[in-house]
Write a structure and sequence with these properties.
This protein is about 30% helix and about 25% strand. It is built from seven helices and twelve strands. The strands form two sheets. It has a seven-stranded mixed β-sheet with strand order 4-3-2-1-10-11-12. Strands 5-6-7-9-8 form a five-stranded mixed β-sheet, with helices on one face. The chain is globular.
């Protein structure tokens, strides 16, 4: 990494909900953050669920979100690599978003060595021992035949169906997004510990969970969940030496380091 530069990680914007006005306000807040982050960004990692629902047809895409899409294009035009990990709400991003904005799309977790530290980075959906129902649905949604069949639907009807399914999923997980479930039910934490049995990672960084979490789960290894930009407005920054989970205030500056040991960052 270049001296003085940073890598920023953020996730789970869910643009489009709960209504147009609040989604637009959130989108403007995210774009303002990206403007500031661009001043010292070596890279930016977006860990999925930028949109509450997204599907790309050959000649059509969902309306809205033009400020974010334009901002991503601006960042990559300036030479800042932007990595986009597909989440469970926007897994049907195909070639339009990367083609228009220049982001680098990742459909699976990746391993990176940055500044001498080993990172394991992904959205986080479908990982760990539980959530078998979602794992089945994910396999169906990723099936090319199912995607082709869905694309045959008129966009007006298809987006209505997609919004309904996304809303159902969001309501089901709403309460869990705001509380620590205990180590026996925190599947991403269990997944991290399983991975650490095979290899060492300094930082294992995910979205999806919506709850800001920063835990040392093995000597020298931390599990970071980025929270979201609906309730918490949290993200992580790596300065070449240490990864910190931080919260953005309504005005823009940071409110401090959320790092803790042994539990969720709430």
């Amino acid at each position: 990494m270049r001296p003085g530069y940073k890598i920023h990680f953020l996730s789970d914007f869910h643009l489009g909900v709960p209504d147009a006005a609040s989604s637009l306000a959130r989108e403007k807040r995210i774009c303002a953050f990206l403007d500031e982050a661009a001043k010292d960004a070596e890279e930016i990692y977006l860990l999925g669920d930028l949109f509450d629902f997204w599907f790309e047809w050959k000649r059509a895409v969902p309306r809205g979100h033009v400020r974010l899409l334009g901002k991503l294009a601006e960042l990559t035009d300036r030479g800042i690599p932007v990595h986009l990990f597909l989440g469970n709400h926007d897994m049907w991003i195909f070639d339009y978003v990367p083609g228009e904005t220049g982001v680098i799309v990742h459909r699976e977790p990746v391993v990176r060595e940055i500044g001498g530290k080993r990172f394991y980075i992904g959205h986080g959906d479908g990982l760990g021992p539980g959530d078998h129902g979602y794992k089945f649905i994910k396999a169906v949604f990723r099936n090319p035949v199912c995607q082709w069949l869905f694309a045959r639907l008129h966009p007006n009807f298809a987006l209505w169906v997609g919004d309904a399914l996304s809303g159902q999923s969001r309501r089901k997980s709403y309460e869990n997004d705001r509380r620590w479930l205990g180590e026996d039910k925190e599947w991403l934490m269990q997944y991290c510990r399983e991975m650490l049995q095979k290899d060492h990672f300094d930082y294992m960084v995910f979205g999806h969970r919506h709850l800001p979490i920063d835990m040392e789960i093995a000597p020298g290894s931390r599990y970071i969940n980025l929270g979201d930009w609906i309730s918490y407005f949290t993200y992580a920054t790596f300065d070449g030496h240490e990864l910190k989970l931080v919260k953005r205030t309504s005005d823009g500056p940071l409110s401090g380091d959320l790092r803790i040991t042994g539990g969720p960052a709430v």
